[in-house]
Amino acid sequence: xxxxxxxxxxILQGDRQAFRLLITQHERLVAHMVARVVKHDEEREELCQDxxxxxxxxxxxxxxxxxxxxxxxxxxxxxxINHLRKQKMSFLDIPEEERFTDLFVxxxxxxxxxxxxxxxxxxxxxxxxxxxxxxxxxxxxxxEGMRYDEIxxxxxxxxxxxxxxxxxxxxxxxxxxxxxxxxxxxL
Amino acid sequence: MNRDEEKLxxxxxxxxxxxxxxxxxxxxxxxxxxLEKPPRYALSDAFADNVLRKVERKEQRSLRVAYAWLAAxxxxxxxxxxxVVMLTExxxxxxxxxxxxxxxxxxxxxxxxxxxxxWVDKRLIHRHHPSR
Lengths: 187, 132
Description:
The complex is a heterodimer of chains A (187) and B (132).
Chain A: H1 4-12, H2 16-37, H3 41-58, H4 68-86, H5 98-104, H6 110-114, H7 119-128, H8 132-143, H9 148-155, H10 159-181, H11 183-186
Helix pairs in contact in A: 1-2, 2-3, 2-4, 2-8, 3-4, 4-9, 7-10, 8-10, 9-10
Chain B: H1 3-13, H2 23-35, H3 47-88, H4 95-100, H5 104-128
Helix pairs in contact in B: 1-2
Transmembrane segments (chain B): 66-88, 100-120
Keywords (chain B): Membrane, Transmembrane, Transmembrane helix
GO molecular function (chain A): DNA binding; sigma factor activity
Protein backbone atom coordinates (compact mmCIF):
# COMPACT_ATOMS: atom_id res chain seq x y z
CA UNK A 1 0.00 0.00 0.00
CA UNK A 2 1.29 3.44 -0.97
CA UNK A 3 2.19 5.61 2.02
CA UNK A 4 0.43 8.90 2.74
CA UNK A 5 3.40 11.14 1.97
CA UNK A 6 4.00 9.55 -1.42
CA UNK A 7 0.30 9.66 -2.25
CA UNK A 8 -0.03 13.34 -1.35
CA UNK A 9 3.14 14.21 -3.22
CA UNK A 10 1.72 12.56 -6.35
CA ILE A 11 -1.59 14.42 -5.95
CA LEU A 12 0.27 17.72 -5.60
CA GLN A 13 2.10 16.96 -8.84
CA GLY A 14 -1.27 16.70 -10.57
CA ASP A 15 -1.59 12.89 -10.65
CA ARG A 16 -5.35 12.30 -10.92
CA GLN A 17 -5.03 8.54 -10.38
CA ALA A 18 -3.40 9.22 -7.02
CA PHE A 19 -6.37 11.37 -6.04
CA ARG A 20 -8.70 8.61 -7.21
CA LEU A 21 -6.83 6.23 -4.90
CA LEU A 22 -7.23 8.65 -1.99
CA ILE A 23 -10.97 8.79 -2.67
CA THR A 24 -11.40 5.02 -2.77
CA GLN A 25 -9.36 4.65 0.43
CA HIS A 26 -11.51 7.12 2.40
CA GLU A 27 -14.95 7.17 0.76
CA ARG A 28 -16.33 4.59 3.19
CA LEU A 29 -15.42 6.71 6.23
CA VAL A 30 -16.88 9.88 4.68
CA ALA A 31 -20.04 8.05 3.55
CA HIS A 32 -20.60 6.66 7.05
CA MET A 33 -20.18 10.07 8.66
CA VAL A 34 -22.50 11.80 6.23
CA ALA A 35 -25.07 8.99 6.25
CA ARG A 36 -25.41 9.17 10.04
CA VAL A 37 -26.62 12.77 9.95
CA VAL A 38 -28.12 13.36 6.48
CA LYS A 39 -31.27 11.47 5.52
CA HIS A 40 -31.67 11.76 1.74
CA ASP A 41 -29.40 9.77 -0.58
CA GLU A 42 -28.96 12.56 -3.19
CA GLU A 43 -27.91 15.02 -0.49
CA ARG A 44 -25.53 12.44 0.94
CA GLU A 45 -23.78 11.83 -2.38
CA GLU A 46 -23.59 15.57 -3.08
CA LEU A 47 -22.14 16.28 0.35
CA CYS A 48 -19.58 13.46 0.04
CA GLN A 49 -18.49 14.94 -3.30
CA ASP A 50 -18.12 18.35 -1.65
CA UNK A 51 -15.94 16.79 1.05
CA UNK A 52 -13.49 15.36 -1.50
CA UNK A 53 -13.53 18.59 -3.53
CA UNK A 54 -12.49 20.42 -0.37
CA UNK A 55 -9.84 17.76 0.32
CA UNK A 56 -8.42 18.33 -3.18
CA UNK A 57 -8.35 22.10 -2.70
CA UNK A 58 -6.70 21.92 0.73
CA UNK A 59 -4.40 18.92 0.34
CA UNK A 60 -1.39 21.24 0.02
CA UNK A 61 -2.13 22.49 3.57
CA UNK A 62 -2.05 19.01 5.12
CA UNK A 63 0.94 19.03 7.50
CA UNK A 64 1.15 15.35 8.55
CA UNK A 65 0.50 16.25 12.20
CA UNK A 66 -2.39 13.76 12.20
CA UNK A 67 -3.42 10.75 10.15
CA UNK A 68 -4.79 11.59 6.71
CA UNK A 69 -8.06 9.85 7.59
CA UNK A 70 -8.46 12.05 10.69
CA UNK A 71 -7.86 15.18 8.61
CA UNK A 72 -10.38 14.08 5.97
CA UNK A 73 -12.89 13.19 8.70
CA UNK A 74 -12.46 16.71 10.15
CA UNK A 75 -13.43 18.21 6.81
CA UNK A 76 -16.38 15.80 6.51
CA UNK A 77 -17.56 16.67 10.03
CA UNK A 78 -17.43 20.43 9.41
CA UNK A 79 -19.20 20.23 6.07
CA UNK A 80 -21.88 17.91 7.45
CA ILE A 81 -22.54 20.18 10.43
CA ASN A 82 -22.65 23.27 8.16
CA HIS A 83 -25.08 21.42 5.90
CA LEU A 84 -27.36 20.71 8.85
CA ARG A 85 -27.07 24.31 10.07
CA LYS A 86 -28.22 25.55 6.67
CA GLN A 87 -31.25 23.32 7.10
CA LYS A 88 -31.86 24.94 10.48
CA MET A 89 -31.45 21.65 12.33
CA SER A 90 -31.20 22.20 16.05
CA PHE A 91 -28.01 21.33 17.88
CA LEU A 92 -29.41 20.72 21.27
CA ASP A 93 -27.30 19.13 23.92
CA ILE A 94 -28.79 16.36 26.03
CA PRO A 95 -29.57 17.85 29.43
CA GLU A 96 -29.45 15.62 32.45
CA GLU A 97 -33.15 15.64 33.26
CA GLU A 98 -34.98 12.50 32.21
CA ARG A 99 -37.97 14.72 31.35
CA PHE A 100 -35.93 16.25 28.54
CA THR A 101 -34.28 13.08 27.28
CA ASP A 102 -37.77 11.73 26.74
CA LEU A 103 -38.24 14.42 24.09
CA PHE A 104 -35.60 12.81 21.89
CA VAL A 105 -37.37 9.52 21.64
CA UNK A 106 -40.98 9.17 20.56
CA UNK A 107 -42.80 7.44 23.39
CA UNK A 108 -46.39 7.87 22.30
CA UNK A 109 -46.11 5.10 19.75
CA UNK A 110 -43.34 2.68 20.72
CA UNK A 111 -44.83 0.09 18.36
CA UNK A 112 -43.58 2.20 15.45
CA UNK A 113 -40.03 1.76 16.71
CA UNK A 114 -40.41 -1.92 17.41
CA UNK A 115 -42.31 -2.70 14.20
CA UNK A 116 -40.50 -4.95 11.70
CA UNK A 117 -37.16 -4.32 13.34
CA UNK A 118 -34.73 -6.60 15.08
CA UNK A 119 -33.24 -5.26 18.29
CA UNK A 120 -30.28 -3.71 16.42
CA UNK A 121 -32.66 -1.88 14.11
CA UNK A 122 -34.60 -0.63 17.09
CA UNK A 123 -31.46 0.75 18.78
CA UNK A 124 -30.39 2.42 15.52
CA UNK A 125 -33.81 4.05 15.20
CA UNK A 126 -33.29 5.45 18.67
CA UNK A 127 -29.80 6.64 17.67
CA UNK A 128 -31.39 8.54 14.78
CA UNK A 129 -33.30 10.64 17.29
CA UNK A 130 -30.14 11.87 19.01
CA UNK A 131 -28.55 15.25 18.20
CA UNK A 132 -26.06 15.09 15.27
CA UNK A 133 -22.90 15.54 17.38
CA UNK A 134 -23.83 12.51 19.47
CA UNK A 135 -24.52 10.41 16.37
CA UNK A 136 -21.14 11.35 14.93
CA UNK A 137 -19.24 10.58 18.13
CA UNK A 138 -21.00 7.21 18.48
CA UNK A 139 -20.29 6.33 14.85
CA UNK A 140 -16.61 7.35 14.92
CA UNK A 141 -16.02 5.41 18.12
CA UNK A 142 -18.06 2.25 17.58
CA UNK A 143 -17.99 1.82 13.78
CA GLU A 144 -14.66 3.39 12.83
CA GLY A 145 -12.89 2.37 16.02
CA MET A 146 -11.31 5.79 16.57
CA ARG A 147 -9.71 6.87 19.84
CA TYR A 148 -11.09 9.67 22.05
CA ASP A 149 -8.27 12.05 21.04
CA GLU A 150 -8.87 11.41 17.33
CA ILE A 151 -12.61 12.06 17.73
CA UNK A 152 -11.76 15.19 19.70
CA UNK A 153 -9.56 16.41 16.87
CA UNK A 154 -12.27 15.75 14.30
CA UNK A 155 -15.11 17.37 16.22
CA UNK A 156 -13.13 20.07 18.00
CA UNK A 157 -14.37 18.79 21.37
CA UNK A 158 -12.14 18.16 24.40
CA UNK A 159 -11.53 14.46 25.11
CA UNK A 160 -13.61 14.68 28.29
CA UNK A 161 -16.60 15.92 26.30
CA UNK A 162 -16.21 13.07 23.81
CA UNK A 163 -16.21 10.54 26.67
CA UNK A 164 -19.19 12.24 28.28
CA UNK A 165 -21.16 12.24 25.00
CA UNK A 166 -20.48 8.52 24.54
CA UNK A 167 -21.42 7.67 28.10
CA UNK A 168 -24.60 9.71 28.12
CA UNK A 169 -25.78 8.52 24.72
CA UNK A 170 -25.22 4.86 25.64
CA UNK A 171 -26.96 5.28 29.00
CA UNK A 172 -29.91 6.95 27.30
CA UNK A 173 -30.11 4.20 24.68
CA UNK A 174 -29.87 1.48 27.35
CA UNK A 175 -32.72 3.07 29.31
CA UNK A 176 -34.87 3.22 26.18
CA UNK A 177 -34.13 -0.41 25.29
CA UNK A 178 -35.26 -1.47 28.78
CA UNK A 179 -38.33 0.73 28.48
CA UNK A 180 -39.36 -0.64 25.08
CA UNK A 181 -38.49 -4.27 25.50
CA UNK A 182 -39.19 -4.60 29.18
CA UNK A 183 -36.88 -6.18 31.74
CA UNK A 184 -38.47 -9.64 31.36
CA UNK A 185 -37.85 -9.68 27.61
CA UNK A 186 -34.16 -8.97 28.16
CA LEU A 187 -33.58 -11.68 30.75
CA MET B 1 -21.51 10.98 35.14
CA ASN B 2 -22.87 8.04 37.10
CA ARG B 3 -19.74 6.14 38.13
CA ASP B 4 -21.46 2.72 38.38
CA GLU B 5 -23.01 3.06 34.92
CA GLU B 6 -19.67 4.18 33.55
CA LYS B 7 -17.89 1.17 35.09
CA LEU B 8 -20.53 -1.18 33.71
CA UNK B 9 -20.13 0.29 30.23
CA UNK B 10 -16.35 -0.07 30.45
CA UNK B 11 -16.62 -3.71 31.59
CA UNK B 12 -19.05 -4.67 28.83
CA UNK B 13 -16.90 -2.95 26.24
CA UNK B 14 -13.79 -4.73 27.50
CA UNK B 15 -15.68 -8.05 27.71
CA UNK B 16 -14.85 -8.35 31.38
CA UNK B 17 -16.95 -10.41 33.74
CA UNK B 18 -20.35 -8.83 34.42
CA UNK B 19 -23.62 -10.17 35.79
CA UNK B 20 -25.51 -11.34 32.69
CA UNK B 21 -28.64 -11.91 34.72
CA UNK B 22 -29.15 -8.17 35.04
CA UNK B 23 -31.41 -6.28 32.62
CA UNK B 24 -28.99 -3.33 32.43
CA UNK B 25 -26.20 -5.65 31.27
CA UNK B 26 -28.34 -7.25 28.57
CA UNK B 27 -29.63 -3.88 27.40
CA UNK B 28 -26.07 -2.52 27.18
CA UNK B 29 -24.99 -5.58 25.21
CA UNK B 30 -27.77 -4.90 22.69
CA UNK B 31 -26.79 -1.24 22.50
CA UNK B 32 -23.09 -1.99 21.94
CA UNK B 33 -23.87 -4.65 19.33
CA UNK B 34 -26.15 -2.28 17.39
CA LEU B 35 -23.75 0.65 17.57
CA GLU B 36 -21.05 -1.38 15.85
CA LYS B 37 -23.21 -1.74 12.74
CA PRO B 38 -22.25 0.71 9.99
CA PRO B 39 -24.98 2.84 8.38
CA ARG B 40 -26.77 1.06 5.54
CA TYR B 41 -25.50 3.38 2.84
CA ALA B 42 -22.92 3.03 0.10
CA LEU B 43 -21.82 5.60 -2.45
CA SER B 44 -22.42 4.94 -6.14
CA ASP B 45 -19.81 2.96 -8.11
CA ALA B 46 -19.06 6.07 -10.17
CA PHE B 47 -18.43 8.22 -7.10
CA ALA B 48 -14.68 8.73 -7.65
CA ASP B 49 -15.27 9.48 -11.36
CA ASN B 50 -17.93 12.03 -10.46
CA VAL B 51 -15.60 13.79 -8.02
CA LEU B 52 -12.76 13.88 -10.57
CA ARG B 53 -15.14 15.27 -13.21
CA LYS B 54 -16.19 17.99 -10.77
CA VAL B 55 -12.53 18.81 -10.06
CA GLU B 56 -11.82 19.09 -13.82
CA ARG B 57 -14.85 21.33 -14.34
CA LYS B 58 -13.84 23.59 -11.48
CA GLU B 59 -10.28 23.90 -12.77
CA GLN B 60 -11.50 24.76 -16.27
CA ARG B 61 -13.83 27.37 -14.81
CA SER B 62 -10.95 28.88 -12.79
CA LEU B 63 -8.82 28.97 -15.94
CA ARG B 64 -11.57 30.72 -17.89
CA VAL B 65 -11.93 33.29 -15.11
CA ALA B 66 -8.15 33.86 -15.11
CA TYR B 67 -8.15 34.41 -18.90
CA ALA B 68 -11.10 36.77 -18.60
CA TRP B 69 -9.18 38.82 -16.00
CA LEU B 70 -6.10 38.81 -18.25
CA ALA B 71 -8.14 40.03 -21.24
CA ALA B 72 -9.79 42.72 -19.10
CA UNK B 73 -6.35 43.80 -17.84
CA UNK B 74 -4.96 44.09 -21.38
CA UNK B 75 -7.98 46.10 -22.55
CA UNK B 76 -7.71 48.41 -19.55
CA UNK B 77 -3.97 48.86 -20.09
CA UNK B 78 -4.43 49.76 -23.75
CA UNK B 79 -7.28 52.11 -22.82
CA UNK B 80 -5.20 53.77 -20.13
CA UNK B 81 -2.25 54.20 -22.54
CA UNK B 82 -4.52 55.72 -25.17
CA UNK B 83 -6.00 58.11 -22.60
CA VAL B 84 -2.54 59.18 -21.41
CA VAL B 85 -1.33 59.74 -24.98
CA MET B 86 -4.38 61.88 -25.76
CA LEU B 87 -4.32 63.86 -22.55
CA THR B 88 -0.56 64.56 -22.54
CA GLU B 89 -0.14 64.82 -26.32
CA UNK B 90 2.75 62.43 -25.96
CA UNK B 91 4.85 61.85 -29.07
CA UNK B 92 6.98 58.75 -29.42
CA UNK B 93 10.70 59.52 -29.23
CA UNK B 94 12.88 56.58 -30.13
CA UNK B 95 16.08 58.28 -29.16
CA UNK B 96 16.25 56.55 -25.73
CA UNK B 97 16.47 53.15 -27.47
CA UNK B 98 19.81 54.16 -28.92
CA UNK B 99 21.01 54.79 -25.36
CA UNK B 100 19.70 51.38 -24.25
CA UNK B 101 21.71 49.69 -27.00
CA UNK B 102 24.75 50.05 -24.75
CA UNK B 103 23.11 47.77 -22.11
CA UNK B 104 22.18 44.70 -24.17
CA UNK B 105 23.51 42.33 -21.50
CA UNK B 106 21.44 43.98 -18.78
CA UNK B 107 18.30 43.74 -20.93
CA UNK B 108 18.95 40.07 -21.68
CA UNK B 109 19.44 39.40 -17.96
CA UNK B 110 16.16 41.18 -17.14
CA UNK B 111 14.20 39.07 -19.63
CA UNK B 112 15.87 35.84 -18.44
CA UNK B 113 15.16 36.74 -14.79
CA UNK B 114 11.46 37.34 -15.45
CA UNK B 115 11.24 34.00 -17.29
CA UNK B 116 13.01 32.26 -14.38
CA UNK B 117 10.52 33.75 -11.90
CA UNK B 118 7.64 32.41 -13.98
CA TRP B 119 9.22 28.96 -14.06
CA VAL B 120 9.77 28.92 -10.29
CA ASP B 121 6.19 30.06 -9.77
CA LYS B 122 4.90 27.18 -11.91
CA ARG B 123 7.13 24.58 -10.24
CA LEU B 124 6.77 25.58 -6.61
CA ILE B 125 3.66 27.67 -6.02
CA HIS B 126 1.33 25.72 -8.32
CA ARG B 127 2.65 22.38 -7.08
CA HIS B 128 1.57 23.27 -3.57
CA HIS B 129 -1.80 24.60 -4.70
CA PRO B 130 -2.99 22.30 -7.49
CA SER B 131 -6.43 23.87 -7.64
CA ARG B 132 -4.98 27.25 -8.66
